[in-house]
Design goal:
It contains four helices and no strands. It is mostly helical. The longest helix has 17 residues. The chain is globular and about 35 Å long.
């Protein structure tokens, strides 16, 4: 779950869905989870949420890595739109 959902379902938005996409894409592309502790738990506990580790060099095209990591931004307003994701994937 996106970190903002720790404040309740009213905090959900399209950016929450992009977060979920980012988690799944990260796992598929890297073979590992992006976070040790679920960020929603950290958010509800008022703990800082560490950024996920970068992808291994060369394992994922830079443009794909960048858009996936943007989807995992803790700030929902900093996440890309679905159109941004689609455009980045189409261009790669």
């Amino acid at each position: 779950m996106a970190p903002e959902l720790g404040r309740g379902a009213k905090s959900a938005g399209a950016s929450s869905d992009l977060w979920s996409f980012g988690v799944i894409a990260y796992e598929i592309l890297s073979g590992r989870f992006p976070f040790v502790t679920p960020p929603v738990i950290d958010a509800m506990s008022a703990r800082a949420i560490a950024a996920p580790p970068p992808f291994d060099d060369g394992a994922v095209p830079a443009a794909i890595a960048a858009i996936v990591l943007r989807c995992l931004d803790v700030d929902p307003t900093a996440r890309p739109t679905a159109a941004d994701v689609a455009n980045a994937l189409a261009a790669s």
